[in-house]
Predict the structure.
Amino acid sequence: MINQAGGRPVAAAADAQAKVDEPKQGAQSRVFDHGDFVLKVPVPPEEMLAKARRHPWFQEMTLEEAKDQHAQGIEHHRTVERFLASCPELRRLCAGFMLLGDDQVKQQKVEVLDALGDRDRLQEREGELRRLIDDFAALHLALWRHGACELECSALTNCGRDPKTGELLLIDVGNLSFRLDDGLESVGDPLSVERATEYMKTDKKARDGERLPDWFTRGQLRECFFGHAPALFEYYISKMSSMLTQEALKNAWPSASRVA
């Protein structure tokens, strides 16, 4: 969860670190809480590598790979900032993402969704989770209308709710693309509940030539629901399959931004 310590608004990491204790320690960034917004400061490559023992993703990482990932992350944030500079509505959907200096990110503070992944409480929170699925699909469509596509599709970690409006916003832009061809690949082929169930029950491998959608293969919601809340699993597959199609993407995508 985001650290709740307060601090005055700042635009420099050194000031942020001086004013706020115990920031949230992510794998690639520290997150400092400043009331209405948070400041994300990337950790140095050496520190990223040191996290290997606690983060399975980095267990095989070398220092050179950590340096490359650090540099790529900074360059990607610069790309995002260039696109958002001409689209205020897209910036709002990305929780007000703003690049400060070379590598710091300022964003609106949101209500995180981690607690929704509690498998012991899925049944009692079914209404809330159905709303999350509806809003998650709608967020993808809203991004598409502004020429952006979110490829990671991780609702529980990449999104949060505006505490004032309840709107679902993207809070991690690390897998945001502005290419239509990336979006079409991410959407993949239509997926039925039967095929999704078969995938989960067998060896979890795509068939020859099959392009499973990223929202299914890369998100956490399928793991959260399958075997614990069958009705929610079916609702998730049906909702996303009906709303996030290649036809819907092409229709939503701004014609001036078409790449493919």
User: Anything to note?
Assistant: The chain has a mean pLDDT of 84. Residues 63-84 form the longest helix (22 residues).
